[in-house]
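Subject: design request, 139 residues
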């Protein structure tokens, strides 16, 4: 079955890690988690942190609702891939959602996309039923 692709381009928290040996040493010293928690708190400004939390929550709900019938890809807007996709699709603000690489939505009103995604998932399921040969028969 073909799954519906949902790509989200937004600013995401960035975490930096040391080499394996240093990470292990920091963890044994009890400072590794504290450093990473501090990075998480300071990775984005407060407004973008709230926005990312809303996007993340919405994506988790989609996964719970549709499971393997949907594929989600999260792209950091500040990454090379995010920059390229923004240029390619004419995206100037975030978050931006691409559905099956074609349909574009920009803005934080994510719930407005639920019916569109539900319709895409339903159509993909119907196509699968048509394309699958009937089981059984004489042969």
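Subject: RE: design request

Done. Sequence follows.
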């Amino acid at each position: 079955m073909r799954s519906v692709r949902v790509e989200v381009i937004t600013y995401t928290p960035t975490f930096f890690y040391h080499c394996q040996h240093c990470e292990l040493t920091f963890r044994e010293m009890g400072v590794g988690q504290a450093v990473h928690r501090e990075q998480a708190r300071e990775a984005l400004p407060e407004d973008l942190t709230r926005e990312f939390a809303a996007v993340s929550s919405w994506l988790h709900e989609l996964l719970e609702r549709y499971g393997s019938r949907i594929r989600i890809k999260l792209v950091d807007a500040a990454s090379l891939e995010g920059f390229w996709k923004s240029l390619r699709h004419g995206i100037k603000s975030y978050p931006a959602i691409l559905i099956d690489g074609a349909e574009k939505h920009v803005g934080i009103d994510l719930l407005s996309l639920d019916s569109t995604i539900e319709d895409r998932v339903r159509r993909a399921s119907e196509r699968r039923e048509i394309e699958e040969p009937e089981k059984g028969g004489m042969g």
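The chain is about 50% helix and 15% strand.
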